[in-house]
Input
Amino acid sequence: MAVSTSQDVAAVPAALAFPPVSAGRRFVDRFARSIIAIAFAVALIPLISLLWIVISRGVKMFSWDFLSTDMVGVFGDMTSGGAVHAIVGTLLITGAAVLISVPLGLLTAIYLVEYGRGPLARAITFLVDVMTGIPSIVAGLFAFALFVLIFGPAYRAGLMGAVALSVLMTPVVVRSVEEMLRLVPNELREASYALGVPKWLTIIKVVLRTSVAGIVTGIMLSIARVIGETAPLLITVGMMTRMNTNIFDGRMATLPVFAYTEYSKGGVGIDRAWAAALTLIIIVMGLNLIARLIARKFSPKFNR
Output
C-alpha cells in the first residue's frame, strides 16, 4: 500500500488552487460592471424625473384640506375643494376588484400548477395570455355592456368599475402566483405526501405557505397595474363632486378620473390634478409597505 508523504499532502492545495486572474479578465470584469452600473443609472433617470415632477407640482395643492374635502360648491378659479370623495372611491372600487380577482386568480394558478393537465389547462393558459394583453378600454367596454344588458342603460355603479379592473387584474395575478408556485421545490411536496398528508392540505400548508411572500408581491403588482387606470372607470363609473360610499348604486369619483377632469379644466384644476397624482403615488407606496409587512410576518422562518 502506498503511503502519502508530507510533500504529496502539501501539493494537493496547490493543485486545487485557482489559477491567477489575468489582467485582461480583470479589465473585462470591470468593464462589464461599469456597463451594468451605467445602464442602471440610465434606467433610474425617467423614474426620478417622474417623481420629481409629480412631487414638485403636486405639493402646491397637497394639504389636509385637499385630503378631507370634496368638490361640492367649487367652480371657476376657486382654490378650495379636495379629493376625499375620489380617494374613498378609488379605495372602494380597487378593494372590490381585489375581492373578485385575487380568489379567482389564486385558484386558477393552483389548478394550472398542481392539477392542470390536458386541453382544459392549455385553453386556460391561452386565455390568460390573451387577457394579459387586452387594452384597458376593452375591459371597460366589456363591463359597461355586461351591466347595461342586465340593469339597463341608465345604471351606473362602482361595481361596474370593479369588474372592469378585475378583468385587468386577474391575468396578472394568475401569472405571478403561477410562477411563485412553480418555484416551490417538489421535494417539499413529496416529503408531505410521504407523511400521509393529502394533496389539498399539502397545497395549503406547504406550497402556499412557502410562496406567500411572492404571492403577496404579485397581488400588489396587479393592484399597481389597475389603480391608476382612467379609461375603464371613465366609461363605467364616471365622475361626481360628492362622496358616494355605495358601490352598488350611483356614480363614484376616483383619483385617475378626478385628475383627468381637473386637468381638462385648466387653471387651478391643473394643480389639483397634480395633487391627485401625488396622492395616488402615496397610496400605492403605502399599500406596498403594508404588503411587505404582511409577507414578512407570514413567510416561513428558517433557522440558520
